Amino acid sequence: MVQTYSAAVVAAGGQGRVHAAAYLADPRVRLAGVADLDLPAAERLAAELDIPHAVADAAAMIAAVRPDIVSVCTPPQHRRAVVEAAIDAGVLAVHCEKPFALTYGDAVAMTQRAADAGVQLTVNLQRRFEPVHRFARAQLDEGMIGELVTIEGYCPNLFDWGSHIVDLALFYRHDAPAEWVLAQHDVSINRYVYGAFVETSSVTQIAWADGVRATIATGREPATPVLNRENNLGLILQGTRGRIVVNGQECVVQRFGADGMRFASPYASDPAGWDHGIDPAIFACTAEAVADLVDALETGAEPVLAGRHALAGAEIVFASYESARSRGRVTLPLRVYDNALTAGLDEGLWSPVGELRSTW
């Protein structure tokens, strides 16, 4: 297979490493460069994965390498500037890490800018490729638990981990648009994830026109990597004839008055066998995402992780924050474009104490 496309990665941290490895796994892609403000980090990743260019300045790298695809793995507060620089440089596709944006306005602006330029925009909400979630949705679609009534999700925080939970709720609903969001957030600790201020704990309700409701609870501390891998986020799908319990490790189908079934993740059996320090499930699903976005460039089809899905999820996250700020139900589409959680902090609506920073 001929290497048809060139790719570059911006930010050489954990997810930058995942994206780089995923490009290397696709024979149609030549990995041409990596950029990071921490130049030694970029140089280390380049040496490890045999990437020809490692620089500190992302815009300079994009101009020099002229890649077809750019992965943007920066913290969310820097993402929009890099995405827009890549679009302005004439790339064919931009693949972002999640969380998509620090504000809803940034999410809307990046999506619109890419659409106006004809650039394919995807966001690496790679759990849509996880076998356990695909199996769970197939069972739901086949009516194994009857009609869906509610979705319950849990995770450490809404902004980072919650972006997966919200996206999976939309995935199980085949991306039907939500109608409204109602939420309450406890902001008692100065808590930061990837440099972004997040809630201490929260409860968010999402409603669809057909009466299905999703409730997402946050607040679990990211205690240890083992806990996070095994059961620190997941979903329960409640139906009229049973339920489906699913997380990164397994999917369990429980049916009222009938036999159920269990489907284990093919990546759960060997958590110690990581290559280049990458979780095998994250790598496998990101590699599928990269292969899919390259397929989409070749065929013109919409990628599985099209930016519109990330935008819909971001709308729900930021509507949740707005509901806490305005203390009421927020009807969608969202008409507020800031980040109400951080704006509320600046306005003195919250009085957090202490500090907790995490990269989980």
What does this structure look like?
This protein is α/β, with parallel strands linked by helices and 360 residues long. The protein has helices at residues 14-24, 39-49, 58-65, 79-88, 104-117, 131-141, 161-172, 225-231, 280-299, 307-326, 340-346, and strands at 5-10, 29-35, 53-55, 69-72, 93-96, 120-123, 148-155, 180-186, 189-193, 196-198, 201-207, 213-218, 234-239, 242-247, 250-255, 258-264, 330-331, 353-358. The strands form three sheets. The protein has a nine-stranded mixed beta sheet with strand order 16-15-14-13-7-12-11-8-17. Strand 9 and strand 10 (196-198) form a beta hairpin. The model is unreliable at 222-230 (pLDDT under 50).
Helices, strands, pairings?
Blueprint: E1 5-10, H1 14-24, E2 29-35, H2 39-49, E3 53-55, H3 58-65, E4 69-72, H4 79-88, E5 93-96, H5 104-117, E6 120-123, H6 131-141, E7 148-155, H7 161-172, E8 180-186, E9 189-193, E10 196-198, E11 201-207, E12 213-218, H8 225-231, E13 234-239, E14 242-247, E15 250-255, E16 258-264, H9 280-299, H10 307-326, E17 330-331, H11 340-346, E18 353-358
Parallel strand pairs: 1-2, 1-4, 2-3, 4-5, 5-6, 7-12, 9-18
Antiparallel strand pairs: 7-13, 8-11, 8-17, 9-10, 11-12, 13-14, 14-15, 15-16
Helix pairs in contact: 1-9, 4-5, 5-10, 7-10
